[in-house]
Design goal:
By secondary structure, this protein is α/β, with parallel strands linked by helices. The chain is about 40% helix and about 20% strand. It has helices at about 20-30, 60-65, 85-95, 105-115, 125-135, 140-155, 170-185; strands spanning about 5-10, 30-35, 40, 55, 70-75, 80-85, 95-100, 120-125, 165.
Length: about 190
């Protein structure tokens, strides 16, 4: 009997490389689909509505929160982010496993709403490496980088809450570790810190 599709929550501080690791995961585990999150932040150059995010106005986001349209939602660095219930259900109904790339507070909400979801915390090799990555992205002002680092400090303290932790020091090794966790969970096992 085939197992039910799984939900994989990939979380960790901003700038830790969640998106890069998830791209590697999706290339190597083709049965997975990435859920597209909603946000109130403005699109970055090259981002497309419905592909990178569902870009919503703050008013539309709040209306949808009040309507119960989100599985999880959170405020991060002054913007709202969330996973639309319809987006998640559509992908699960297609039989695919679903990957959520969300912040720590959202991951906690998903864990409460969907205890069977598999949560993986992506950690930086050091706080200095995280700062360098955030600055190197060139997408945030100095004030935004500082705000993201302050949030990251609190998020890094939450690692013990997660059964799976991957330290993103060397990209290929971290991708291998994430793929191993996901495949292990799909096959019915999985454990630990890598």
């Amino acid at each position: 009997m085939p197992s039910a599709p799984k939900v994989f929550v990939i979380t960790g501080p901003s700038g830790v490389g969640k998106g890069t690791l998830i791209r590697g995961l999706l290339e190597r585990v083709p049965d997975l689909e990435l859920s597209v999150s909603a946000t109130t932040r403005a699109p970055r150059p090259g981002e497309q509505d419905g592909v990178d995010y569902h870009f919503l106005t703050p008013q539309e986001f709040e209306r949808r929160v009040a309507a119960g349209d989100f599985v999880e939602h959170a405020t991060y660095s002054g913007n709202r982010y969330g996973t639309l219930r319809s987006e998640l259900e559509r992908r699960l109904e297609s039989g695919a496993g679903v990957v959520l790339e969300i912040e720590v507070q959202g991951a906690r909400q998903v864990r409460r709403a969907m205890p069977a979801a598999v949560a993986v915390f992506i950690a930086p090799p050091s706080r200095e490496a995280l700062r360098a990555r955030l600055i190197g992205r060139g997408t945030d002002s100095a004030e935004q980088v500082d705000a993201r680092l302050q949030t990251a400090e609190r998020e890094l303290e939450s690692q013990p809450e997660f059964r799976h932790v991957v330290v993103n020091d060397r990209l290929e090794e971290a991708t291998d570790a994430l793929v191993s966790i996901v495949r292990g969970e799909i096959d019915g096992g999985g454990s630990g810190r890598i």
